[in-house]
TrEMBL record:
Its cofactor is pyridoxal 5'-phosphate. The keyword Amino-acid biosynthesis applies. The lineage of its organism: Bacteria, Pseudomonadati, Calditrichota, Calditrichia, Calditrichales. One of its GO terms (cellular component) is cytoplasm. The modification N6-(pyridoxal phosphate)lysine is found at K110. One of its GO terms (molecular function) is L-serine hydro-lyase (adding indole, L-tryptophan-forming) activity. This is Tryptophan synthase beta chain. The gene is trpB. Belongs to the TrpB family. Keywords: Amino-acid biosynthesis, Aromatic amino acid biosynthesis, Lyase, Pyridoxal phosphate, Tryptophan biosynthesis. Pathway: Amino-acid biosynthesis; L-tryptophan biosynthesis; L-tryptophan from chorismate: step 5/5. Residues 75-414 form the Tryptophan synthase beta chain-like PALP domain. It comes from the Bacteria. Tetramer of two alpha and two beta chains. It is an enzyme of class 4 (lyase).
Protein backbone atom coordinates (compact mmCIF):
# COMPACT_ATOMS: atom_id res chain seq x y z
CA UNK A 1 0.00 0.00 0.00
CA UNK A 2 2.81 2.43 -0.87
CA UNK A 3 1.81 6.09 -0.91
CA UNK A 4 4.95 7.11 -2.79
CA UNK A 5 7.04 5.08 -5.22
CA UNK A 6 10.69 6.08 -5.57
CA UNK A 7 13.37 4.99 -7.99
CA UNK A 8 17.08 4.79 -7.23
CA UNK A 9 19.23 7.34 -9.06
CA UNK A 10 20.82 4.45 -10.95
CA UNK A 11 17.35 3.53 -12.29
CA UNK A 12 16.70 6.95 -13.83
CA UNK A 13 16.26 6.43 -17.60
CA UNK A 14 19.49 6.65 -19.61
CA UNK A 15 17.76 7.55 -22.88
CA UNK A 16 14.95 9.89 -23.95
CA UNK A 17 12.14 8.62 -26.19
CA UNK A 18 11.36 10.29 -29.53
CA UNK A 19 7.77 9.65 -30.65
CA UNK A 20 8.19 11.18 -34.14
CA UNK A 21 9.47 8.11 -36.03
CA UNK A 22 6.80 5.85 -34.45
CA UNK A 23 3.79 7.98 -35.50
CA UNK A 24 1.53 6.28 -38.08
CA UNK A 25 1.61 9.38 -40.33
CA UNK A 26 5.09 10.87 -40.89
CA UNK A 27 5.67 14.34 -39.44
CA UNK A 28 5.64 17.22 -41.90
CA UNK A 29 8.64 19.59 -41.85
CA UNK A 30 8.62 23.20 -40.68
CA UNK A 31 8.47 25.64 -43.60
CA UNK A 32 10.28 28.90 -44.30
CA UNK A 33 8.56 32.12 -45.47
CA UNK A 34 8.86 30.93 -49.12
CA UNK A 35 6.89 27.76 -48.31
CA UNK A 36 9.94 25.48 -48.68
CA UNK A 37 11.06 23.15 -45.87
CA UNK A 38 13.47 24.72 -43.39
CA UNK A 39 16.89 23.05 -43.45
CA UNK A 40 18.78 22.52 -40.16
CA UNK A 41 21.37 25.13 -41.26
CA UNK A 42 18.72 27.82 -41.38
CA UNK A 43 18.05 27.38 -37.65
CA UNK A 44 21.66 27.97 -36.57
CA UNK A 45 21.29 31.68 -35.69
CA UNK A 46 18.58 30.65 -33.20
CA UNK A 47 19.67 27.27 -31.76
CA UNK A 48 22.98 25.42 -31.35
CA UNK A 49 23.55 22.57 -33.84
CA UNK A 50 23.55 19.84 -31.17
CA UNK A 51 19.95 20.73 -30.26
CA UNK A 52 18.94 21.18 -33.93
CA UNK A 53 20.15 17.59 -34.50
CA UNK A 54 17.79 16.42 -31.76
CA UNK A 55 14.99 18.53 -33.23
CA UNK A 56 15.17 16.72 -36.58
CA UNK A 57 16.32 13.32 -35.31
CA UNK A 58 14.63 10.20 -36.64
CA UNK A 59 16.11 8.00 -33.90
CA UNK A 60 13.54 6.61 -31.48
CA UNK A 61 15.96 6.69 -28.53
CA UNK A 62 18.60 9.33 -27.70
CA UNK A 63 21.21 8.95 -24.96
CA UNK A 64 21.07 11.35 -22.00
CA UNK A 65 24.66 12.57 -21.48
CA UNK A 66 26.20 11.53 -18.15
CA UNK A 67 26.78 15.18 -17.13
CA UNK A 68 23.12 16.01 -17.77
CA UNK A 69 22.06 13.01 -15.70
CA UNK A 70 24.28 14.23 -12.86
CA UNK A 71 22.51 17.62 -12.91
CA UNK A 72 19.04 16.02 -13.05
CA UNK A 73 19.87 13.98 -9.91
CA UNK A 74 19.45 17.19 -7.91
CA UNK A 75 15.75 16.27 -7.75
CA UNK A 76 15.18 13.28 -10.04
CA UNK A 77 13.91 10.59 -10.18
CA UNK A 78 10.65 12.31 -9.16
CA UNK A 79 8.22 10.40 -6.93
CA UNK A 80 5.04 8.75 -8.17
CA UNK A 81 2.23 9.17 -5.60
CA UNK A 82 -0.92 7.17 -5.04
CA UNK A 83 -3.72 9.69 -4.38
CA UNK A 84 -5.43 7.74 -1.60
CA UNK A 85 -6.90 10.92 -0.13
CA UNK A 86 -8.53 11.96 -3.39
CA UNK A 87 -9.82 8.43 -4.06
CA UNK A 88 -11.47 8.45 -0.65
CA UNK A 89 -12.94 11.93 -1.11
CA UNK A 90 -14.45 10.85 -4.43
CA UNK A 91 -15.47 7.40 -3.22
CA UNK A 92 -14.14 5.97 -6.46
CA UNK A 93 -12.98 2.42 -7.21
CA UNK A 94 -10.32 3.96 -9.50
CA UNK A 95 -6.68 3.85 -8.43
CA UNK A 96 -5.32 7.35 -9.00
CA UNK A 97 -1.58 8.01 -9.36
CA UNK A 98 0.21 11.29 -9.98
CA UNK A 99 3.76 11.95 -11.08
CA UNK A 100 5.01 14.78 -8.92
CA UNK A 101 7.09 17.21 -10.97
CA UNK A 102 6.58 19.97 -8.38
CA UNK A 103 9.62 18.69 -6.47
CA UNK A 104 12.12 20.34 -8.83
CA UNK A 105 13.93 23.45 -7.51
CA UNK A 106 11.89 25.71 -9.81
CA UNK A 107 8.65 23.95 -8.82
CA UNK A 108 7.64 22.38 -12.14
CA UNK A 109 8.60 19.99 -14.95
CA UNK A 110 10.34 22.79 -16.87
CA UNK A 111 13.89 22.10 -15.55
CA UNK A 112 13.76 18.65 -17.24
CA UNK A 113 14.45 20.44 -20.52
CA UNK A 114 16.06 23.63 -19.17
CA UNK A 115 19.02 21.60 -17.86
CA UNK A 116 19.82 19.77 -21.13
CA UNK A 117 19.15 22.88 -23.24
CA UNK A 118 21.53 24.98 -21.13
CA UNK A 119 24.10 22.16 -21.13
CA UNK A 120 24.04 21.64 -24.93
CA UNK A 121 24.35 25.42 -25.49
CA UNK A 122 27.33 25.57 -23.14
CA UNK A 123 28.96 22.63 -24.98
CA UNK A 124 28.52 24.58 -28.21
CA UNK A 125 30.37 27.62 -26.84
CA UNK A 126 27.29 29.78 -26.25
CA UNK A 127 27.51 32.35 -23.42
CA UNK A 128 23.96 33.76 -23.17
CA UNK A 129 20.39 32.50 -23.51
CA UNK A 130 17.24 34.47 -24.21
CA UNK A 131 13.75 33.19 -23.70
CA UNK A 132 10.11 34.07 -23.04
CA UNK A 133 7.97 33.02 -20.12
CA UNK A 134 4.22 33.03 -19.47
CA UNK A 135 3.48 32.32 -15.84
CA UNK A 136 7.19 32.52 -15.02
CA UNK A 137 7.79 28.81 -14.54
CA UNK A 138 9.93 28.43 -17.64
CA UNK A 139 11.88 31.65 -17.04
CA UNK A 140 12.66 30.46 -13.52
CA UNK A 141 13.66 27.02 -14.76
CA UNK A 142 16.02 28.39 -17.42
CA UNK A 143 17.56 30.86 -14.95
CA UNK A 144 18.16 27.96 -12.55
CA UNK A 145 19.67 25.77 -15.29
CA UNK A 146 21.83 28.65 -16.58
CA UNK A 147 23.22 29.16 -13.08
CA UNK A 148 24.18 25.47 -12.87
CA UNK A 149 26.01 25.34 -16.21
CA UNK A 150 27.38 28.91 -16.20
CA UNK A 151 25.37 30.91 -18.78
CA UNK A 152 23.73 34.34 -18.69
CA UNK A 153 19.95 34.27 -19.05
CA UNK A 154 17.54 37.00 -20.22
CA UNK A 155 13.81 36.35 -19.88
CA UNK A 156 10.93 38.23 -21.56
CA UNK A 157 7.90 37.74 -19.32
CA UNK A 158 4.33 38.27 -20.61
CA UNK A 159 3.26 41.64 -19.16
CA UNK A 160 0.11 40.46 -17.39
CA UNK A 161 1.95 37.65 -15.59
CA UNK A 162 4.83 39.99 -14.75
CA UNK A 163 2.32 42.22 -12.94
CA UNK A 164 0.40 39.33 -11.35
CA UNK A 165 3.42 37.30 -10.21
CA UNK A 166 6.17 39.64 -8.99
CA UNK A 167 7.99 36.94 -7.02
CA UNK A 168 8.77 34.92 -10.15
CA UNK A 169 11.09 37.77 -11.18
CA UNK A 170 12.81 37.57 -7.80
CA UNK A 171 13.33 33.83 -8.29
CA UNK A 172 14.90 34.45 -11.71
CA UNK A 173 17.16 37.15 -10.26
CA UNK A 174 18.16 34.88 -7.36
CA UNK A 175 19.47 32.41 -9.94
CA UNK A 176 21.26 35.23 -11.79
CA UNK A 177 18.72 35.75 -14.61
CA UNK A 178 17.26 39.05 -15.88
CA UNK A 179 13.49 39.44 -16.28
CA UNK A 180 11.90 42.04 -18.60
CA UNK A 181 8.13 42.61 -19.01
CA UNK A 182 6.99 42.00 -22.62
CA UNK A 183 6.27 43.83 -24.85
CA UNK A 184 9.29 45.95 -23.96
CA UNK A 185 11.21 48.82 -25.52
CA UNK A 186 14.39 46.70 -25.68
CA UNK A 187 13.51 45.18 -29.10
CA UNK A 188 12.28 46.42 -32.48
CA UNK A 189 9.22 44.11 -32.27
CA UNK A 190 8.39 45.22 -28.73
CA UNK A 191 8.59 48.92 -29.62
CA UNK A 192 6.31 48.41 -32.64
CA UNK A 193 3.69 46.53 -30.61
CA UNK A 194 3.82 49.08 -27.78
CA UNK A 195 3.23 51.88 -30.29
CA UNK A 196 0.16 50.07 -31.69
CA UNK A 197 -1.22 48.67 -28.38
CA UNK A 198 0.26 50.53 -25.40
CA UNK A 199 -2.00 48.73 -22.90
CA UNK A 200 -1.66 45.20 -24.24
CA UNK A 201 -1.44 42.43 -21.60
CA UNK A 202 1.16 40.80 -23.87
CA UNK A 203 1.14 37.20 -25.08
CA UNK A 204 3.54 34.30 -25.42
CA UNK A 205 3.61 34.94 -29.18
CA UNK A 206 4.87 38.51 -28.61
CA UNK A 207 7.40 37.49 -25.95
CA UNK A 208 8.82 34.77 -28.24
CA UNK A 209 9.28 37.37 -31.01
CA UNK A 210 11.22 39.61 -28.61
CA UNK A 211 13.41 36.79 -27.26
CA UNK A 212 14.26 35.50 -30.75
CA UNK A 213 15.10 39.02 -31.93
CA UNK A 214 17.33 39.59 -28.90
CA UNK A 215 19.22 36.36 -29.67
CA UNK A 216 19.72 36.75 -33.41
CA UNK A 217 20.74 40.43 -33.25
CA UNK A 218 23.56 39.92 -30.71
CA UNK A 219 26.66 41.03 -32.68
CA UNK A 220 28.97 38.65 -30.75
CA UNK A 221 27.10 35.59 -32.07
CA UNK A 222 27.32 34.03 -28.60
CA UNK A 223 23.61 34.27 -27.77
CA UNK A 224 20.98 31.66 -28.59
CA UNK A 225 17.29 31.34 -27.89
CA UNK A 226 15.71 28.58 -25.78
CA UNK A 227 12.06 27.55 -25.95
CA UNK A 228 10.32 25.88 -22.99
CA UNK A 229 7.73 23.90 -24.92
CA UNK A 230 6.32 23.14 -28.41
CA UNK A 231 9.53 21.97 -30.15
CA UNK A 232 10.40 18.31 -30.74
CA UNK A 233 13.56 18.40 -28.62
CA UNK A 234 11.60 19.82 -25.67
CA UNK A 235 9.06 16.96 -25.88
CA UNK A 236 12.02 14.58 -26.10
CA UNK A 237 13.68 15.84 -22.90
CA UNK A 238 10.38 15.68 -21.00
CA UNK A 239 9.84 11.98 -21.79
CA UNK A 240 11.93 11.21 -18.73
CA UNK A 241 8.65 11.82 -16.83
CA UNK A 242 6.70 9.03 -18.50
CA UNK A 243 9.67 6.65 -18.69
CA UNK A 244 10.20 6.94 -14.93
CA UNK A 245 6.46 6.58 -14.33
CA UNK A 246 6.34 3.28 -16.23
CA UNK A 247 9.24 1.92 -14.17
CA UNK A 248 7.50 3.01 -10.96
CA UNK A 249 4.20 1.40 -11.94
CA UNK A 250 6.05 -1.82 -12.80
CA UNK A 251 7.77 -1.69 -9.42
CA UNK A 252 4.41 -1.85 -7.61
CA UNK A 253 3.08 -4.45 -10.05
CA UNK A 254 0.51 -2.14 -11.64
CA UNK A 255 0.25 -3.81 -15.02
CA UNK A 256 -2.42 -1.97 -16.96
CA UNK A 257 -2.98 1.78 -17.17
CA UNK A 258 -6.43 2.83 -18.41
CA UNK A 259 -6.22 6.62 -18.50
CA UNK A 260 -3.28 9.04 -18.81
CA UNK A 261 -3.96 12.75 -18.26
CA UNK A 262 -1.84 15.92 -18.53
CA UNK A 263 -2.57 19.61 -18.94
CA UNK A 264 -1.46 21.03 -22.29
CA UNK A 265 -0.24 24.55 -23.02
CA UNK A 266 2.54 24.11 -25.57
CA UNK A 267 2.30 20.39 -24.87
CA UNK A 268 5.54 19.53 -23.08
CA UNK A 269 4.54 18.12 -19.68
CA UNK A 270 1.68 16.25 -21.31
CA UNK A 271 3.99 14.82 -23.98
CA UNK A 272 6.61 13.98 -21.37
CA UNK A 273 4.23 11.85 -19.37
CA UNK A 274 2.11 10.54 -22.24
CA UNK A 275 4.43 9.73 -25.16
CA UNK A 276 5.87 6.53 -23.65
CA UNK A 277 2.23 5.42 -23.21
CA UNK A 278 1.36 6.58 -26.75
CA UNK A 279 4.07 4.17 -27.91
CA UNK A 280 2.19 1.36 -26.11
CA UNK A 281 -1.05 2.53 -27.69
CA UNK A 282 0.49 2.44 -31.18
CA UNK A 283 1.59 -1.12 -30.37
CA UNK A 284 -2.00 -2.09 -29.48
CA UNK A 285 -2.55 -1.16 -25.80
CA UNK A 286 -6.01 0.14 -24.89
CA UNK A 287 -5.31 3.46 -23.14
CA UNK A 288 -7.30 6.67 -23.11
CA UNK A 289 -4.75 9.50 -23.33
CA UNK A 290 -6.15 12.95 -22.55
CA UNK A 291 -4.46 16.34 -23.01
CA UNK A 292 -6.48 18.99 -21.13
CA UNK A 293 -6.60 22.63 -22.20
CA UNK A 294 -8.51 25.72 -20.99
CA UNK A 295 -11.91 26.36 -22.57
CA UNK A 296 -10.68 29.92 -23.23
CA UNK A 297 -7.76 28.70 -25.37
CA UNK A 298 -9.12 25.55 -27.08
CA UNK A 299 -6.24 24.80 -29.44
CA UNK A 300 -6.66 21.03 -29.76
CA UNK A 301 -10.42 20.84 -29.31
CA UNK A 302 -11.53 23.68 -31.62
CA UNK A 303 -8.66 25.04 -33.71
CA UNK A 304 -7.64 23.58 -37.10
CA UNK A 305 -4.48 21.56 -37.83
CA UNK A 306 -2.64 24.09 -40.01
CA UNK A 307 0.72 25.63 -40.79
CA UNK A 308 1.24 28.64 -38.54
CA UNK A 309 3.97 30.81 -37.13
CA UNK A 310 5.10 30.10 -33.58
CA UNK A 311 5.15 33.81 -32.73
CA UNK A 312 3.32 37.04 -33.45
CA UNK A 313 5.99 38.75 -35.56
CA UNK A 314 6.72 35.84 -37.98
CA UNK A 315 10.28 35.31 -36.66
CA UNK A 316 9.83 31.51 -36.38
CA UNK A 317 9.31 28.98 -39.20
CA UNK A 318 5.78 27.82 -40.04
CA UNK A 319 4.98 24.71 -38.00
CA UNK A 320 2.33 22.05 -38.70
CA UNK A 321 0.16 22.27 -35.59
CA UNK A 322 -3.25 22.92 -34.17
CA UNK A 323 -3.40 26.71 -33.91
CA UNK A 324 -5.79 29.51 -33.05
CA UNK A 325 -3.69 31.82 -35.24
CA UNK A 326 -0.49 33.63 -34.29
CA UNK A 327 -2.29 36.92 -33.59
CA UNK A 328 -4.44 35.32 -30.87
CA UNK A 329 -4.34 37.34 -27.64
CA UNK A 330 -5.87 35.15 -24.96
CA UNK A 331 -8.21 36.39 -22.25
CA UNK A 332 -6.28 36.86 -19.01
CA UNK A 333 -7.22 33.62 -17.23
CA UNK A 334 -4.85 32.66 -14.48
CA UNK A 335 -3.26 29.63 -16.09
CA UNK A 336 -0.63 31.76 -17.82
CA UNK A 337 1.24 28.72 -19.10
CA UNK A 338 -1.77 27.41 -21.05
CA UNK A 339 -2.40 30.52 -23.11
CA UNK A 340 -0.29 29.74 -26.19
CA UNK A 341 -2.00 30.00 -29.58
CA UNK A 342 -0.45 26.80 -30.94
CA UNK A 343 0.33 23.28 -29.78
CA UNK A 344 3.45 21.16 -30.16
CA UNK A 345 3.60 19.64 -33.68
CA UNK A 346 4.14 16.17 -32.13
CA UNK A 347 1.08 16.50 -29.86
CA UNK A 348 -0.91 17.94 -32.79
CA UNK A 349 0.14 15.08 -35.07
CA UNK A 350 -0.71 12.44 -32.44
CA UNK A 351 -4.15 14.07 -32.09
CA UNK A 352 -4.63 14.07 -35.86
CA UNK A 353 -3.68 10.37 -35.90
CA UNK A 354 -6.46 9.63 -33.38
CA UNK A 355 -4.08 8.62 -30.57
CA UNK A 356 -5.26 11.32 -28.12
CA UNK A 357 -8.64 12.47 -26.82
CA UNK A 358 -8.24 16.17 -26.02
CA UNK A 359 -10.63 17.89 -23.61
CA UNK A 360 -11.24 21.57 -22.70
CA UNK A 361 -12.34 22.63 -19.21
CA UNK A 362 -13.34 26.05 -17.84
CA UNK A 363 -11.20 27.67 -15.16
CA UNK A 364 -13.80 27.68 -12.36
CA UNK A 365 -14.17 23.88 -12.50
CA UNK A 366 -10.36 23.67 -12.51
CA UNK A 367 -9.94 25.79 -9.37
CA UNK A 368 -12.71 23.84 -7.65
CA UNK A 369 -10.83 20.62 -8.48
CA UNK A 370 -7.52 22.10 -7.29
CA UNK A 371 -9.04 23.07 -3.94
CA UNK A 372 -10.56 19.61 -3.51
CA UNK A 373 -7.17 18.09 -4.35
CA UNK A 374 -5.35 20.37 -1.88
CA UNK A 375 -7.75 19.40 0.90
CA UNK A 376 -7.43 15.69 0.12
CA UNK A 377 -3.74 15.40 -0.83
CA UNK A 378 -2.10 18.54 0.56
CA UNK A 379 -0.37 19.83 -2.56
CA UNK A 380 -1.53 23.22 -3.88
CA UNK A 381 -1.11 22.73 -7.63
CA UNK A 382 -0.27 25.31 -10.29
CA UNK A 383 -3.29 26.75 -12.14
CA UNK A 384 -2.08 24.94 -15.27
CA UNK A 385 -1.95 21.63 -13.40
CA UNK A 386 -5.48 22.17 -12.08
CA UNK A 387 -6.74 21.30 -15.57
CA UNK A 388 -5.23 17.81 -15.23
CA UNK A 389 -6.71 17.49 -11.74
CA UNK A 390 -10.18 18.49 -13.01
CA UNK A 391 -10.08 15.88 -15.79
CA UNK A 392 -8.81 13.26 -13.32
CA UNK A 393 -11.78 13.96 -11.05
CA UNK A 394 -14.15 13.68 -14.03
CA UNK A 395 -12.61 10.30 -14.93
CA UNK A 396 -12.65 9.04 -11.33
CA UNK A 397 -16.34 9.90 -11.02
CA UNK A 398 -17.01 8.15 -14.32
CA UNK A 399 -15.22 5.05 -12.98
CA UNK A 400 -17.45 5.19 -9.89
CA UNK A 401 -20.58 5.45 -12.02
CA UNK A 402 -19.42 2.56 -14.20
CA UNK A 403 -18.29 0.60 -11.12
CA UNK A 404 -14.88 0.04 -12.72
CA UNK A 405 -11.48 -0.27 -11.00
CA UNK A 406 -9.66 1.91 -13.52
CA UNK A 407 -6.04 2.96 -13.19
CA UNK A 408 -5.68 6.70 -13.80
CA UNK A 409 -2.28 8.40 -14.01
CA UNK A 410 -1.98 12.17 -14.19
CA UNK A 411 0.92 14.60 -14.40
CA UNK A 412 1.28 17.00 -11.49
CA UNK A 413 3.31 19.44 -13.56
CA UNK A 414 3.94 22.04 -10.84
CA UNK A 415 2.98 23.55 -7.51
CA UNK A 416 1.03 26.80 -7.28
CA UNK A 417 2.76 28.48 -4.37
CA UNK A 418 3.79 31.37 -6.64
CA UNK A 419 0.31 31.58 -8.17
CA UNK A 420 -1.93 32.16 -5.18
CA UNK A 421 -3.55 35.26 -6.68
CA UNK A 422 -5.72 33.01 -8.84
CA UNK A 423 -6.82 31.04 -5.77
CA UNK A 424 -7.57 34.29 -3.97
CA UNK A 425 -9.78 35.46 -6.84
CA UNK A 426 -11.50 32.07 -6.94
CA UNK A 427 -12.36 32.27 -3.23
CA UNK A 428 -13.58 35.86 -3.68
CA UNK A 429 -15.90 34.71 -6.50
CA UNK A 430 -14.13 37.03 -8.94
CA UNK A 431 -13.22 34.47 -11.60
CA UNK A 432 -15.24 34.15 -14.76
CA UNK A 433 -15.42 31.32 -17.24
CA UNK A 434 -14.77 32.11 -20.84
CA UNK A 435 -15.64 29.48 -23.43
CA UNK A 436 -14.26 30.51 -26.81
CA UNK A 437 -17.18 30.34 -29.24
CA UNK A 438 -17.01 28.94 -32.79
CA UNK A 439 -17.39 32.51 -34.10
CA UNK A 440 -14.44 33.70 -32.01
CA UNK A 441 -12.35 30.78 -33.27
CA UNK A 442 -13.30 31.57 -36.90
CA UNK A 443 -12.23 35.19 -36.38
CA UNK A 444 -8.99 34.23 -34.65
CA UNK A 445 -7.81 31.74 -37.29
CA UNK A 446 -8.13 34.40 -40.02
CA UNK A 447 -4.51 35.38 -39.32
CA UNK A 448 -3.53 32.05 -40.96
CA UNK A 449 -5.31 32.77 -44.25
CA UNK A 450 -2.97 32.46 -47.22
CA UNK A 451 -0.43 30.30 -45.37
CA UNK A 452 0.46 26.85 -46.80
CA UNK A 453 -1.78 23.95 -45.71
CA UNK A 454 -0.43 20.69 -44.24
C1 LIG B 1 3.19 24.06 -14.02
C2 LIG B 1 2.96 24.15 -15.48
N1 LIG B 1 2.27 23.18 -16.09
C3 LIG B 1 2.04 23.22 -17.41
C4 LIG B 1 2.48 24.25 -18.20
C5 LIG B 1 2.14 24.26 -19.65
O1 LIG B 1 3.23 24.07 -20.50
P1 LIG B 1 3.43 22.72 -21.27
O2 LIG B 1 2.16 22.43 -22.01
O3 LIG B 1 4.56 22.95 -22.19
O4 LIG B 1 3.73 21.66 -20.27
C6 LIG B 1 3.22 25.28 -17.62
C7 LIG B 1 3.73 26.38 -18.45
O5 LIG B 1 4.19 27.38 -18.02
C8 LIG B 1 3.47 25.22 -16.23
O6 LIG B 1 4.15 26.18 -15.64
Amino acid sequence: MAVKVFLDEADMPKQWYNLGPDLPTPMQPPLGPDGNPVSPDMLTPVFPMNLIEQEVSQDSWIDIPEEVRALLYRWRPAPLHRAYGLEKALNTPARIYFKNESVSPAGSHKPNTAIPQAWYNKQFGIERLTTETGAGQWGSALSFASALVGLECKVYMVRISFDQKPFRKVMMETWGGTCIPSPSDTTEVGRKILAEMPDTPGSLGIAISEAVEAAVTDPTGKTRYALGSVLNHVMLHQTIIGLETKKQLAKINEKKVDVVIGCAGGGSNFAGLAFPFVKDKIEGADIDIIPVEPASCPTLTKAPFAYDFGDTAHMTPLMPMHSLGHKFIPPPIHAGGLRYHGMAPLVSAATRDGLLNPRAIGQIECYKAAVQFARAEGIIVAPETSHAVAATIQEAIKAREEGREKVIVFGLSGHGLMDLLGYEKYFAGELEDHYMSDDEVRESVKSMEGLPKP
